[in-house]
Specification:
The complex is a heterodimer of chains A (236) and B (356). Chain A has 236 residues and is α/β, with parallel strands linked by helices. Chain A contains ten helices and ten strands. The termini of chain A are far apart. With 356 residues, chain B is mostly helical. Chain B is built from 14 helices and two strands; from the N terminus they run H-H-H-H-H-H-H-E-E-H-H-H-H-H-H-H. Chain B is globular and about 55 Å long. Classes of the chains: A alpha/beta (236), B mainly alpha (356).
């Protein structure tokens, strides 16, 4: 059984029909890439899964349960964690406090170990733990956003454009990190405009086009797919 | 660069008028202060006394102002019924105070009795503030900002007349606590003990709030929600609960302020007593920078001191009769001046930097 099953969801912004029947599955341990151009519905899909938005039709199943109408804050304790678009670090909280907020739902006491593993994943954050997150560089903020999302010990990590706005030298690092997190056993659903990088680490991928899934295949097949090459990989 | 805006930019009557106003104010303050100080009408010791009284009054304003600022910080909304939250605690606790006085407990164990009263008033006001949020404001969240503002004014009347219905319309007074009477004299300077009590208890409450907001997890969650509600939800924070908690904390501080105020000015307890302290505290919050916690504390103390010293220093020096009765004029003039010259307040950030 799939860990996450998205079944024919229709999501609206007011009267704007953003998702027109999106369906896909994510199995435990996979890295799934959702690619597509601006406005294709990638972010809306993640927001619908994470509970920030509700689908008007269709359903989202997580671990076999219908979570379509479950509030975002309740899904965190069930193991879904999201790194929002634009990172969303709390600028006026310190790095340490941001991480502590990531562990907000944890009731199992000892989160010291998790601080340690966050800092060993990103040593830069430990150097800056007393600094306000707003003073970090874009790359450091992305590290913080990812580390913070891991503090809730998620089973499913949703990543919205983790490479956006980062210098090219940093992009490789971000994807390396995502790969390492997946190796630890966290299932990953990755939304990216940088299809090239996303498909390199993903197992399977879905191409979204104006609110619908246009193509779905394994990542290696998608890399060979002519349409994908032309439209998203910039290969003629 | 000129400090006068109309000389640097294109000429505009508005900027010109504001600059003229600015010059007149500075002139008025300087001339008034000079006249008063050179006349030697008020001695140094008297100035110190005025300052101490202002500081006490100001710390009460600060406690109430914190409620405005906490709520604004998290919801970008002015809870104009907050003065009534203060009244609810102060009015309800006067009966407890009378009872404690009758049994003699109030003067046998004064500190314990006052602590009990503060807790009681805090809980009453907290309950009122939480109900207010739950019943009057939460259903309107997400509506245009004018809507909760009007609701707040309606809620304010509702609370006033509810408490009139509960306790009647007569004036009540807090009983005197013996150990708070008397003065401490250092040379010519006489400071009433009650003023020291007011200042210290307000200080303790404010330190408590600081600890709560800076050090505890719920405090961090309050700051996180005030910065970005959506991301806060993605952390698993139940933002409705955090907002309710914030109203509760503001209410507790207002209720405690009600009792502390009752020790400082025992008279005048009735259903309407929240109005003036409410708008004064609002002024203090704006003065310090609304949404800014240290700003509300500073703004409250500053307003209290200005109110105590301003009339004697400036207005009396300008030959205005009955200057001491004009402290409300000073307070609200300060509000207008801040809104004209520094809308973001003393410690506030520019509003444009915040997401509106």
């Amino acid at each position: 059984m799939a860990l996450l099953e998205v079944k024919d969801i229709h999501t609206y912004y007011g009267n704007i029909h953003a998702l027109k029947g999106v369906s896909f599955e994510v199995d435990t341990g996979e890295i799934i890439a959702l690619i597509g151009s601006n406005g294709a519905g990638k972010t809306t899909t993640l927001r619908t899964i994470s509970g920030l938005m509700e689908p008007r039709e269709g359903a989202v199943y997580y671990d076999g349960d219908d979570i379509s109408n479950t509030r975002a804050d309740l899904l965190v304790s069930r193991g879904i964690s999201m790194v929002p678009e634009g990172r969303g670090v709390f600028a006026k909280l310190t790095v340490e406090e941001n991480l502590d907020m990531g562990a907000y739902v944890r009731r199992d006491g000892d989160i010291k170990e998790d601080f340690k593993s966050a800092y060993s994943l990103f040593p830069r954050l430990e150097e800056r733990k007393k600094q306000f997150a707003g003073t970090l560089s874009g790359g450091e903020q992305q590290m913080l956003a990812i580390a913070r999302a891991l503090m809730s010990k998620p089973r499913l990590l949703l990543l919205d454009e983790p490479s956006m706005g980062l210098a090219p030298v940093l992009v490789d690092g971000v994807f390396d990190t995502v790969q390492r997190i997946a190796n630890e056993g966290v299932t990953i659903l990755l939304v990216e405009q940088n299809a090239h990088m996303a498909l390199q680490i993903a197992d399977r991928g879905y191409v979204l086009q104006s609110g619908e899934v246009a193509i779905s295949d394994t990542a290696s097949n998608l890399q060979q797919n002519e349409t994908v090459q032309k439209t998203y990989l910039g290969i003629d | 660069m000129s400090i006068f805006k109309w000389k640097t930019d294109e000429f505009s009557w508005v900027d010109f008028t504001i600059d003229v106003l600015r010059v007149l104010i500075v002139l008025g303050v300087v001339v008034g202060a000079w006249n008063t100080l050179s006349s030697g009408r008020i001695s140094f010791a008297q100035w110190v006394n005025l300052f101490a009284a202002g500081l006490s009054q100001g710390s009460i304003y600060a406690l109430i102002a914190l409620g405005y600022t906490l709520v604004y910080g998290i919801l970008l909304m002015i809870n104009f019924a907050h003065g009534e939250v203060f009244m609810a605690g102060a009015f309800s606790t006067v009966f407890l105070a009378e009872a404690l006085n009758r049994t003699g407990f109030l003067n046998e164990q004064p500190l314990l009795a006052i602590l009990l009263m503060i807790l009681f008033a805090g809980l009453v006001s907290m309950t009122v503030a939480i109900l207010l949020e739950r019943v009057a404001y939460r259903p309107l969240r997400g509506s245009p900002r004018l809507v909760p503002l009007i609701t707040a004014i309606g809620a304010s009347f509702f609370l006033q007349y509810t408490f009139r219905g509960l306790y009647g319309s007569g004036f009540k007074a807090y009983p005197q606590v013996k150990i708070l009477q008397g003065v401490i004299s250092i040379g010519d300077i006489n400071i009433p003990i009650v003023q020291i009590f007011v200042f210290c208890s307000a200080l303790i409450l404010m330190l408590g709030l600081y600890w709560l907001v800076e050090r505890t997890r719920i405090g961090k969650a309050m700051r996180a929600v005030s910065e970005n509600k959506e991301v806060a939800r993605l952390m698993g924070i139940d933002i409705d609960w955090v907002i309710m908690f914030t109203f509760g904390v503001g209410g507790f501080l207002a209720g405690s302020a009600g009792v502390i105020n009752g020790m400082f000015r025992p008279q005048g307890v009735n259903f309407f007593m929240g109005f003036i302290p409410g708008i004064k505290a609002f002024t203090a919050a704006v003065l310090g920078g609304i949404g800014n916690i240290p700003g509300a504390m500073l703004g409250g103390l500053f307003l209290g001191v200005i109110e105590a010293i301003g009339p004697n220093l400036v207005l009396a020096g300008l030959g205005i009769p009955g200057a001491n009765q004009l402290k409300d004029v000073i307070a609200f003039t300060m509000l207008v001046l801040v809104l004209i010259f520094r809308p973001q307040g003393i410690l506030g950030e520019r509003l444009s930097e915040q997401k509106a």
